[in-house]
From TrEMBL:
Presence of the UniProt keyword Transmembrane helix in the record: no
One Pfam match: Isochorismatase
Chain segments annotated as transmembrane: none
PANTHER family: HYDROLASE, ISOCHORISMATASE DOMAIN-CONTAINING PROTEIN 2
GO molecular function annotations of the record: hydrolase activity
Domain Isochorismatase-like as annotated: residue spans: 9-157
Superkingdom field: Bacteria
This protein's name: Hydrolase
Annotated keywords: Hydrolase
Coiled coil (UniProt feature): none
Amino acid sequence: MKIKAEKSIFVQVDIQEKLFPHISDNEELEKNLQILIKGLILHEIPVIVNEQYKKGIGETIPSIHELTKDYPHFEKTTFSCCGNDDGLNAIKKSGRDTVILAGIETHVCVLQTALDLLEEGFKVVLVTDCVNSRKQKDKEIAIQRLIQAGVIPTTYESLLFELTINAKHPVFKEISRLVK
């Protein structure tokens, strides 16, 4: 299955201040997420931001918030983003059938969101270098499980160039600069 910009929506999961410092390789994850989000915005892909229990875990980290502040934000207490009716309805109302997923933690909120999205009939694309957990083993096992469940794994660079299609695309040069 080819991933197409006009059929895709991006769902960001719980990239929050009090949890983020405890995530493995968080500096690389932050850099990767910034590139991914900038590229998806260039492709005019809708963005939905989810935040787990903000009173306890805090706001989205500043560098990511700056990129996503103008997009819908949904607070949740369920681990799955689909447990929040408003968030799930926003995905459904987008008219897009492919959900690009990134965030933390891979083995909890990202995993449960992806499984629920599959049950809802969406195609789910997991950006594997834009997810992480506190422990690498948790991330690895979660990714294996998600692939077995039918999630499509990719990396931010592969995804951005797949969405761009060819070197004559209007955003090709900007995408190329982002991934360098």
